[in-house]
Amino acid sequence: MGESEAPKGPADDAQVTSTQVGPAVPTRPAVRVPASSTLTAYERVVARAAMTHARQYQDVIEEAAKAAKRLDEQIMAPRSAAYEAVQQMLDHERAVRAAMIEPAQRWTEIHRASVEAVRASSVIELLARLPSPELAYAAEWQQRERLIQRAAREAAEQSRRLTESLVRLPKWIERRWPPNWPDDPDYAVLANMAVEEGLPVIWVPGSELLAALVSAADRQARVDLLVEAREQVLGECRARLADVDHDGVAEWLPLAEEAICSIEADRHASAQTLAVTVADALLKKHLRGRTNYGLYRDSLKVDHEDVRVAEIRRTYALYPVVPFLTEWHGGDQPLPGVLSRHVTVHFAHPDHLHEGNALVAIMLMTSLFCLLDEHLYERDRDAKRDDSAA
After folding, report:
1. How far, in Å, CA of 356 to CA of 226, rounded?
2. At what angle do helices 101-113 and 41-99 cross, to 10 degrees?
3. Hey, which residues does 8 pair with through a beta bridge?
4. DSSP bridge pairs for 16
5. What is the pLDDT of residues 251-286, one digit of tens each?
6. Where are the alpha helices (DSSP H) in the chain?
7. Which helix (H) or strand (E) holds 284?
8. pLDDT tens-digit readout, 212-231
9. Would you give the DSSP letter of residue 353?
10. Which of 45, 34, 33 is nearest to 3 (CA)?
């Protein structure tokens, strides 16, 4: 353009300013074009180009501001939702904590009581940094773990004791096993011999003679075997009585020896009567007491299948007492076929006082001596143990 070109009006000299778009858009300084009268044609072209670029720049700034606003809205909307969710979680937590004040107090007490133990473990030290309820849970877990460990120790101790008991079991059985019995006795036959036939089977006779008696056909055959082995039977009775020394029964030992001497001298009736009287005295003093003979007799009738190992000696030693206490009142009633206290003491029937019954009476007396000697010593030991425990 030439220099004669008409000057531009005031609109051409208008100020170019930046437009404010939103709070985040900064303002720019105004662009002022000098008056055309002072510019050359070239300078006016340059000025108009600059103004065009300024307007384009302003448009870009406005679009950027709008994009920034849209982006901000897109970001703030999720933030608001997240904030509301967090607030709801916090409200719920406050409600839960309010409902757990009492348990929390209890957990806090648990924590205070076990804080030293808690700090002893690196894992628990880490848990110690947690809030109070979690810490209380950790302490409670540790308490449960201690209970489990204690239960495990107790179980191990019980297992150890059981093992020791199993080790001692053979000796325990040996102490309670009848000394004249085999390892595999015929309990039914022995019980029948004692309860039905009135023959002692504990302590006396010896194991060999006892085996022969078990194999015999009936009671009469067994009594015949005893009579044939009289010296052996009396020797075994003396040997057993020599081991009896408890003060509770020692006063009758001289009478027991006198009864043995009587049968050795063939005074069968006196031997039987004395042995029966001594046996009756032992029963009354230490076993029967003031109990009626009939009631005491019935109390001794125990099924041999129900007898435990610890009760074998006592039960089988007292089995012959059942027929021993059979009553007989004469008249048309036949004599008992077994040794009877009632006949011996109250009636002294000659057909009942014979060598066979005398031997059985001495054997029964000997068995009762051995039973009571053992029983009284065990009673004394139990009493001492109770005194020591007290």
Report:
1. 7
2. 80
3. none
4. 31
5. 999 999 999 999 999 999 999 999 999 999 999 999
6. 41-99, 101-113, 115-119, 122-127, 132-176, 187-195, 207-215, 219-228, 230-242, 247-250, 253-264, 268-282, 293-299, 312-318, 321-324, 341-342, 355-389
7. none
8. 999 999 999 999 999 999 99
9. S
10. 45
